[in-house]
Amino acid sequence: VLCSGTLQQCSYLPNQAPDSRTYSIRDDPHVNVMMAGSTLRKVKSRSWKKQRHFRLLEDGLTIWYKSRWAGKGHSTFSVTELEAVREGHQSEVLQSIAEEFSADLCFTLVFHGRQGNLDLVAESPEEARAWIQGVRKLIHKAQTMDEKERLDQWVCDWFQKADKNKDGKMNFKEVRKLLKMMNVEMNEEHALHLFTMADKSESGSLEIEQFVHFYKILTQRDEVWKVFQDYSGDGEKLLLEELENFLMIEQQEGGRSAQHSQELIDRYEPSETAKKQGVMSLDGFQMYLCSQEGSILKPEHRGIYQDMNQPLNHYSISSSHNTYLLEDQLRGQSSLEAYIQALKRGCRCVEVDSWDGSDGEPVVYHGHTLTSKILFRDIISTLKEYAFKASDFPVILSLENHCGIEQQTVMAQHLRHILGDTLLTTLLDGQMPQQLPSPQVRICLVVGDHLSRSVGMRRKGGREERQEERREREREIERERENSCTTASKLSRELSDLVVYCKSVHFHGFEHARSHSKCYEMSSFSESKAKRLAKEAGTDFVQYNTRQLSRIYPSGLRTDSSNYNPQDMWNVGCQIVALNFQTAGLEMDLNDGLFRQNSCCGYVLKPDFMRDSSTRFSPERPEERQGYIPLRLSIQVISGQQLPKVNQKEGSIVDPLVRVEIYGVPQDQAKEETSHINNNGFNPLWNETLNFVIHTPELALVRFVVEDYDKASRNDFIGQFTLPFTCIQAGYRHIHLLSKDGTAIPPSSLFINISISELK
């Protein structure tokens, strides 16, 4: 979000002395190589390797590249889109050409979100090293910029875009084009008025200092100024006591407002004079509202704040379906990158479908389809490297075994040898479990269909097997044969012994489960069966999930890798609600939203009434729950800031509207939207209030969606943000919007005022 402030000198502008931070980057020898440009091979496959000329543009953020035969055509991407650089043969594509190009020539640029990697080969090890180190430094610089530096960079970027002839000045014609680029429609008279106000030298063009003035006029936030005026005695500053009143009354902070107000001045006030006086200026006030502390998500819920010592079945667990697929279920590519992307997103349950490979090595793909195959051992190696980068809590490996006994044994060997001590192979305390372990153990846990022989019987120092368990397993194998669920008629002891806590069993109904089930037994349900059970026997399903794990998977008809709504399953306490992580959209927004809290660790503690085995809660009848207190949610949608253009066609400007959607128990499902604002994506102003009643706040998710209104066809998506109702901060807040892919699109935001109260 743009906050007011003065501009440090732009690094690329002629006759300007860059600040020390920019200078240190521009003076870096690796960055200099990037700015001079290099010919690199862009590699898509063993047969597709083409030379492209790459260089870093003067803004220090944009990487430009083109084919030498492409004429004027070129492509660009920003360093801010990059997450990391991998050295050597660290992608499947570069591994496939390892014999042709040595590791010291190869590197991979990894993008945020679902965007594919860029595999590159340099002409010399020195050139590869320069690009690897240079890009890493630029990524670090982009990630560590404070609000002030982000503003400076943002203003510099706009000046560069507007200054078409690169003379360090901007005439009125360039200003008109700039306004279109900034997604704002303004009549020529008003635009000329702003230009004239900024053109102090009356030269007919703006230099950088005058451009800063023009930009401040353009980005002036009257709606923030009005809030400031309501609490400022003199209209110029907020005294400590006035800031306390604002925090207590508007932000509903109560007793902590006194100490917090001084902390906010120390943290966000840009004027040293104001800091010494213990006051906050409008600039500081706006910087606070634009910060993470001023965002809609409670700061205390960003880190681990929940009890992580409960049994596994007391948590919702971020879970992926057919994790190996990057695309559809019939012809899509299977890739190790799919596992990396899911794990980086906080996924803690990944799926592997194993089949006999032709050379004695098990392969993974979607059986009986045209999806490509990858080696089981490569997946386990990827898991070893990435399992605990985003979260320290357990990774559940859901194995669907279709292998014969020989390759099952190979699978077991790979699991043991590659994962080593992180693989759980024995009961944690050597005793028959009365409940599942907590997430506090940093382990890889194997569960799966067509694997379990006598789960729960492996003890430290022994392999006893109870007669009763053996008979139960024999009956289960017979059921599996009858249902033709597996191609494997025999089970490898080495593999089945790795299933320690989660024995896969057929679901025989809630009554049977109540009297016969064990805590270490887990059943899988198709989305349609789970949805039917949730509607017909919601309380029974909730009780069932207080005792053991359940896994939900998408319908086999979803060959396009679309997703079902996970909320229906969370409403009855299902833990492993597996989604196609490769498919962006509402369903993954909800998944990202639920797991955004608790340090994005992939485990979210279910509400207490979903963990009590004697619970009578039903999502169909939330008012019957003990302690039922419905809440009123009132959201004043005030304004938007720098919304991205949907249609990149010149002259196209968005007509934005905001819709707020509630997902939760059936009674809570609701949608309300504002009117649309014509031709203004830059600073649209709504000032409209949307009201909701929330019957089960502990299960509700709130999704804010911004769309480009189109009266003739479907609205276009602009951005969204989803979070649990229980994580919402009341008061004046900014919502930092995300793309369809779930990645940040700074500085796009909404400014809102939220009120939460008990329904009288």
Automatic annotation (TrEMBL):
Residues 150-185, 186-221 form the EF-hand domain. This is Phosphoinositide phospholipase C. One of its GO terms (cellular component) is nucleus. Its cofactor is Ca(2+). GO terms for molecular function: calcium ion binding; phosphatidylinositol-4,5-bisphosphate phospholipase C activity. It comes from the Eukaryota. PANTHER family: 1-PHOSPHATIDYLINOSITOL 4,5-BISPHOSPHATE PHOSPHODIESTERASE DELTA-4, PHOSPHOINOSITIDE-SPECIFIC PHOSPHOLIPASE C FAMILY PROTEIN. One of its GO terms (biological process) is lipid catabolic process. It catalyses: a 1,2-diacyl-sn-glycero-3-phospho-(1D-myo-inositol) + H2O = 1D-myo-inositol 1-phosphate + a 1,2-diacyl-sn-glycerol + H(+); a 1,2-diacyl-sn-glycero-3-phospho-(1D-myo-inositol-4,5-bisphosphate) + H2O = 1D-myo-inositol 1,4,5-trisphosphate + a 1,2-diacyl-sn-glycerol + H(+). It is found in: Cytoplasm; Endoplasmic reticulum; Membrane; Nucleus.
